[in-house]
Amino acid sequence: MNFDKVLSFNNKVVVVTGGASGIGESISKAFATQGAAVAVVDLEEEKALRVAQSLGPLSKSFVCDVSDYVSVQSVSSAIHQEYKRIDVLVNSAGVVALAPAESLTLEAWNRTININLSGTFFMSQAIGKFMLDQGSGKIINMASQAASIALDEHVAYCASKFGVLGITKVLASEWAGRGVNVNSISPTVVLTELGKKAWDNPKGDALKKLIPTGRFALPEEIAASALYLSSPAADMINGADLLVDGGYSIR
Ligand SMILES: NC(=O)c1ccc[n+]([C@@H]2O[C@H](COP(=O)([O-])OP(=O)(O)OC[C@H]3O[C@@H](n4cnc5c(N)ncnc54)[C@H](O)[C@@H]3O)[C@@H](O)[C@H]2O)c1
Description:
251 residues; alpha/beta; Rossmann fold; 8 helices; 7 strands; 15% strand; globular; binds nicotinamide-adenine-dinucleotide
């Protein structure tokens, strides 16, 4: 292994869903800094365009609702047509709806499952087919500490993220023999728009005290994990869930 170049993504094509803000934006920037062409996929057209333009001439934005099967098919084909190959997919598009379990609305349940769970599968299936055809690829699914522990008022979110680990493991099992590794990253709270919505409050201050490192994560720390898992240094890592939670879930 050439350790000098292990995090170089020159000539690589990386697709990032939810790339227009938060963790996805930070991941898009990290890959572009390491030389990749980044397809910034998001519902938010203007924000996605702004991010893609900030990454340089190789990167482009694509508008897509990851929960819409038809939208995913057409955007995945458009990205493949544009770049002729796809080396990395990061599924970062996601939403959170908070409510006590007994009062969560049907709309909030469906939206969370459709975007976080079905969206992750639709994108992985559509882009995964191109990766299987080319015989190589890395898929990184953004899960959460809520993928393996209970968080109060997060019933739909926890259900969707537990499911993301299930998708990750099955795809990892089916596809690694054909060159496609699939892993997930499970952050604790990251202070993005989504993170603030759930945790920028006294409950968040109490949670911080339970994290051995004593703080929440930075988007760049999640991006660094995504770079590593997508690199040749992680070729033997498959079906794993990388917790970036400061040790919260060990207690
Ligand atoms: N922020 C945290 O504390 C935290 C912690 C653990 C896991 N996560 C996960 O990380 C991922 C990113 O979270 P974030 O904090 O960056 O959120 P964010 O709200 O800052 O960004 C999410 C992005 O996804 C896009 N998006 C939403 N629905 C979409 C859809 N249907 N199709 C396409 N794009 C859509 C949004 O437009 C937005 O740009 C999510 O999957 C989230 O569950 C976040």
